[in-house]
Predict the 3D structure of the following.
Amino acid sequence: MPSMEPAGINYLAVVAAAVAYMILGALWYSPVLFGAAWMKGIGKTKEQIAKEFSPVNYLVALIFSFIASYGIARFMQWTGGDSIADGIKISVLAGVAFVLATMGVNDVFENRPRGLTVINTLYHLLGFLIVGIIIGAWR
């Protein structure tokens, strides 16, 4: 049975995966990809977002990206996963079970636009996939 102990986590891979997740977010929510649609979905303008901007937001997002990356690495360890294919399987399962399902419930009850739900959910699903590939490659 795989160990439940902390040994076996590649923390460099976890940090790299968290940074990659953040880079994806910077691209995903930029004007190049889905920034305009996201702003429309949340009902804010570029000026409103700029006014509310705080560098602390990026630090908090990086911490959450690290937690997600660590979670994927921990699931990899617990299941004995040791390959990119295992990283993909685990990250897709985690993304669908934890991201899609929970965001879907929240967005339905918050009556959020479906397009916003799709943008946010696909970002996290793709982010988890990237994390799983990085963690799987460095196992």
